[in-house]
Structure prediction request, 1042 residues.
Amino acid sequence: MIEKIDERYNVYRIKIRSMEEQDLLRISDQLSLALNFEEMLRLRAYFRNLGRDPTDVELQAIGQAWSEHCCYKSSKFVLRKYITGIRAKQVILTGEDAAVVEFDKDHAYVFKMESHNHPSAVEPYGGAATGVGGIIRDVLCMGAKPIGLVDSIFFGNLNYPYDSLPKGVKHPNYIFNGVVSGIRDYGNRVGIPNVAGITYFDDRFITNVLVNAGCIGIAKKSNIIRSMVDRVGYNLVLVGGKTGRDGIHGVTFASKVFKTGENVEKTAVQLGNPIIKEPLIHAVLEAVDKKLIYGMKDLGGGGLSSVVGEMCLAGGVGAEVHLEKVPLKEKDMSPWEIWISESQERMMLAVSDENLNQLMEIFSLWDLEATVIGRTIKDEKLILYFHDLVVMDLDTHFITSGPVYCRPYVIKYPAQIKEDMIPPEPNYNRVFLNLLENPNIASKAYVIRQYDHEVKGNTVLKPLVGIIGKETHGDASVLKPLIDSYRGIALTSTSNPKLTSIDPYWGAMSIVDEAVRNLVSVNASPNSFADNLNFGNPENPKVMGDLYEVARGLSDAAKYLKIPYVSGNVSLYNETNGESIPPTPTLMGVGIVKDIRKTVSSDFKDHNDIIYVINETYQEMGGSIYYDLMNYRSTIVPKVDLEKLNKSYKTLLKAMDKRLIKSCHDISEGGIAISLAEMSIGGDLGLEVNVSEIGNIRSDFKLFSESNTRWVIEVSEKNERDFVKMFSNLNIYKIGKIKDNGEFKIYDGKRLLINQTVNNLRRHWTMFPVEESK
Amino acid sequence: MKKDEIRIAILRIEGTNCEEESYNAFKILGTKPEYVHVNELSRGLKKLNDYQMIFIPGGFSGGDYVRAGAIFASRMKGTISMDLKKFIDDGKLVIGVCNGFQVLIELGFLPGINTDWSEKPQAALAPNISNRFECRWIYVKKEKNSCEFLKNIDDGKIIALPIAHAEGRFIFSKENEKKYLEHMIDNNQIALRYVDPNGNYEEYPWNPNGSLYNIAGICNENGNVFGLMPHPERAFSRYQHPGFYRNLYEEPGKKIFKGMVDYIVKKF
Prediction:
């Protein structure tokens, strides 16, 4: 069935033309191709038609290219229908390694968010670190300077009992520390500030951790480089790290479900090296500025195989590559291993003969390896040599023509609107303090402080804001990317698995609403999104149904608001032993700040200022942290009124431009009570408010409801009249005043529900997960 | 000399990552900063002598997989440290921020007790007592010290600066601790000390790494080599300062950089 082609080299011919059907699957398994029966049949037919058998290099190349990870065979249909078609005038380029969107007349911002879930589950430190490394290269290869990182990470609860862990599953504590350290050590070393993200805990992530890493960069429009080459006779220059056995079959591995107890493929996780990356960024950007690079693409999933194939396909050319020229970490690697290795810190550059020498000089100064490994040719073919032997000769169109599936799906409508018996009213003070300690509400300073969020000196509004030593959570961070301009970029990330698992459609709408709220809170106009869709096994019709509904929700919201999804990825097969993660769409939201001098932070500023709540509060308790804490269930999740959202956010931005708003915080997990607490903590100021007017519902629902499209804002007495006038077409509620006596009091009518001190709130809020004395 | 004649070498090797904001700071002040890769010096493409000041920015030089700053320092030791010594003897300024401070200690130019160049490091910047990387704003107090270029900040003045490091705890070996610390105090070598907002020399978290004597920044006896853990280049404009959101328009980093530039203008 398998025969060596040449005595001297490890290259084999796989005789699939003569294989019986049961052997086809066996060979797919043996070579870790992760191709299914139909796909193997298609291969056999193709080579029968060609009149020859494939080499192992050829089969491996096709296995990579047809994997779920590379060709999106399950999700393409859904994405086309809902996500990728939203047009907006600010978008310059999509469909490449990262999206390019207009920043100002001469500049573009370039960004993407991508999951690195499977590797992080196996090797949390290395998996998370390479997730950061990969996303930086995606931005860099467009010719942009990376300026900000975003990381959204999801774990089981850290207090999960060790003896209840499924066999072979690592404890969330281990995974959490590994992931945070991996992100920290990579991002800090490479010197790109990590400014936003989510740290989320839910036991449904016990077996499948999620790591969604985002990066944004800035570029002159004239320096943007395409991820393709459309000219013949150009040099293919491989730069950066050496190629090794780390990261073999990463993409096929990410396209399978886990079974615990199976010998997990450690070699499938790549190893990152930020100290190659850091000079690589300098060298590449210098070459970009000198216009030496014609096309550029990062080596990620699928390695050389993907990068050469996709660059050539996009440009309508082919390539000849000499595999023996690729610098190796291990000398005895087989040609197929060299071709598909996913070793980190590598980029592929297409360079003309004329510019080659100058390019090589730059890389030499930075002690970086740069090697010409091949050349583009006119025929749309990939021809690979290993010394004098041809080891692959295939049509680029065939290699990259992965199948598209329209998988069966079942939509679960949470149709019966129902709520458990309305619970009795709680002990307000106790519940409130418990909420402050809840891992999804409590201070994330432990994580945020370990990331350098100020390196490069451009972070104007930081992820933690307020009085030095007493900081609170901000809504979005703001970067000032250009030295001679006050224009800024705001970044946020949102996700809410509790909502999306009860109601994928409205849950998806809610995370769009929250992304808009966060950006607007700092006076940024929402401009574009990246979407990461993390789901279970797509061969399960219910999982596909959730994917459809999430995509429909994301689509409806964005279409109305005219905010496009310009990049992102889909991560499927997040399932172990049949236990799937909840449907978890994550957004990275980018906002444009017209003038960073007018940005607004969330901490309260001054005694006696007036506190308003913008928009109504409803009894929509499904998926709320309050119900979760009390163990109540409801399928009534917060809805989104898109017209109201659109109107509200635009009005709020106008008020901020007129400097009427002194502080602003969105209302999300934990409701109004938690938003007020965070604002008090950061400004070290108390308050006295009365929530009687904000809704016609019970007191606990008023305090803890997570209804969408709401903000708490601070306005001075002097500006109150102008502020109220601007909001005449919306419902706003004056609830009370900021106090400098350190007391935190919330009334409903005459009932004093919450009576605390700001210091006590801060103490409870900073208890998790490691006590940080302040 | 005139401001626009001042040439400042911003040293870098792989892993240096705060050079851009440092470059911008000097550029805005009207001088001529220049990125200088250690390879360019060791290969003879550029010469230290052409500069009035060397600035070693923060980062993770060489990955800092050994002790922070050790790789950068050993690369310089083998190649350009004699030139650097002459540079210092000429009274020119050498400044190290964060990782740059670690490098100057590893090279033996700081603290420089009873010598201008110690063969072995006399002090160390050890792992933070919290045992993790911390990025946040803290307060330091300007102490009476021998750095001429810090004279534009009053002694006793409290300023806010950001820190971002995992290894910033200034220590001496136990046997030298008392002797060396007294020597540094007597010779006005301690320039900045961590304090709480009211100026008290407090423990962690106000002393963010647990440094001996709350030491945040020191100079040599001559006052022309200066190293500090906080990042003045990240506190250069008022928009970088968290106080901007509370109507405090302070630019402590700019004051420190401006002092250096004015000093060079006067001296050379």
About this structure: The domain at 3-267 of chain B is CATH 3.40.50.880 (Rossmann fold). The mean pLDDT of chain B is 92.
